[in-house]
């Protein structure tokens, strides 16, 4: 995929993670959004990043085994 | 112990009253901790190098937590408290037998993975479909390939849903370090993902 990596897009790429993490300053956020409004190329990549975050968050983990669950309960300190 | 038993004990002496109150607090602590076991295991599973080691770690964590329950401050984040024990144990037991930490972990630019995926797709598809080109196995193995310093932070924040501050407390590192490792770690993860996709394709 070719796209002229001119400064606005490179700058927008730098702001992507902090933008999604909501840690940009108000000025930076507006700056990013202004660029995203007019740049479909960057906008797609931001949306992809958001989807990826959700996808990683939902990463499948096999459930805890019943034997581990039982062992944990057995670790409780008995009352005298 | 039933609450009736506790009440009977409480009637005997002031010392018994104190002990009964303590027993009640401890039982409550254990129950709250056990209720979090699924979530603790889920995070442990991606912090530890294998499922067996994750199970061992969770057991050790709970054994230690039950012994030192008094050092937990009620009302604070119990899940973070448990994870702090777990990550310390994980470091102590030298899980760091995985490949040596790379000081120059290979990162890609933030747009790199999308570019690779959409390229493989023969042009721009929609973003949700592009992400679906990745399998859950791709995510799990790419995550496992990320050097541990970065991975710990990604697992805690992006999978465990801990705040930066909680992650900083758990790992005993400054919050600025959490943020920079997270930022770089996600780039390393995306590079690993791009590599696994390119391998699949070849």
Description:
The complex is a heterodimer of chains A (about 80) and B (about 200). With about 80 residues, chain A is mainly α. Chain A has a domain of about 55 residues. Helix content of chain A is about 70%, strand content about 0%. Chain A is elongated. With about 200 residues, chain B is mainly alpha-helical. Chain B folds into 2 domains: about 100 residues, Rna Polymerase Sigma Factor, Chain: A (Orthogonal Bundle); about 90 residues, Winged helix-like DNA-binding domain superfamily/Winged helix DNA-binding domain (Arc Repressor Mutant, subunit A), CATH 1.10.10.10. Chain B is about 70% helix and about 0% strand. Chain B is elongated, with a radius of gyration of 22 Å. The relative contact order of chain B is 0.11. Chains A and B meet through helix 1, helix 3 and helix 4 of A and helix 2, helix 3, helix 4, helix 6 and helix 7 of B.
Short description:
By secondary structure, chain A is mainly α.
Number of helices, counting only DSSP H or I runs of 4 residues or more of chain B: 11
CA radius of gyration of chain B is 22 Å
Rg of chain A computed from alpha carbons, rounded to a whole number of angstroms: 22 Å
Tell me which CATH architecture of the largest domain in chain B applies here: Orthogonal Bundle
Oligomer: heterodimer
Order of helices and strands of chain B: HHHHHHHHHHH
CATH-assigned homologous superfamily of the largest domain in chain B: RNA polymerase sigma factor, region 2, helix turn helix motif
How much helix is in the residues of chain A?
A: 55-70%
Approximately what portion of the residues of chain B adopt beta-strand conformation? under 5%
CATH class of the largest domain in chain B: Mainly Alpha
- Indicate how many domains the architecture of chain B comprises: 2
The gross shape of chain A turns out to be elongated
> Shape of chain B, please?
elongated
Point out poorly predicted stretches of chain B. Answer: none
Secondary structure tally: strands of chain B: 0
How much of the sequence lies in strands of chain A comes to under 5%
């Amino acid at each position: 995929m070719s796209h002229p990596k001119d400064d606005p897009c490179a700058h927008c790429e730098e702001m992507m993670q902090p933008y999604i993490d909501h840690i940009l300053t108000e000025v930076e956020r507006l700056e990013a959004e202004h660029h995203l409004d007019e740049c479909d190329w960057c906008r797609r990549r931001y949306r992809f990043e958001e989807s990826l975050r959700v996808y990683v968050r939902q990463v499948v983990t096999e459930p805890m085994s019943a034997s581990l669950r039982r062992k944990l309960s057995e670790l409780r300190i008995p009352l005298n | 112990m039933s609450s009736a038993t506790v009440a009977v004990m409480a009637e005997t002496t002031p010392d018994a009253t104190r002990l009964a109150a303590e027993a009640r607090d401890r039982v409550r602590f254990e129950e709250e901790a056990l209720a979090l076991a699924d979530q603790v295991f889920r995070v442990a599973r991606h912090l530890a190098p294998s499922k067996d080691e994750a199970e061992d770690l969770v057991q050790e964590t709970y054994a230690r937590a039950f012994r030192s329950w008094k050092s937990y401050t009620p009302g604070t984040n119990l899940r973070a408290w448990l994870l702090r024990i777990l990550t310390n144990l994980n470091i102590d037991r030298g899980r760091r037998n995985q490949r040596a930490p790379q000081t120059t972990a290979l990162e890609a630019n933030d747009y790199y993975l999308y570019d690779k995926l959409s390229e493989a797709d023969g042009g721009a598809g929609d973003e949700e479909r592009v992400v679906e080109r990745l399998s859950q196995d791709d995510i799990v193995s790419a995550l496992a390939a990320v050097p541990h310093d970065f991975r710990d932070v990604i697992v805690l924040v992006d999978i465990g849903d801990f705040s930066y501050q909680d992650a900083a407390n758990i790992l005993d590192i400054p919050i600025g370090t959490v943020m920079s490792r997270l930022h770089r770690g996600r780039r390393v993860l995306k590079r690993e993902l791009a590599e696994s996709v390119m391998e699949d394709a070849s």
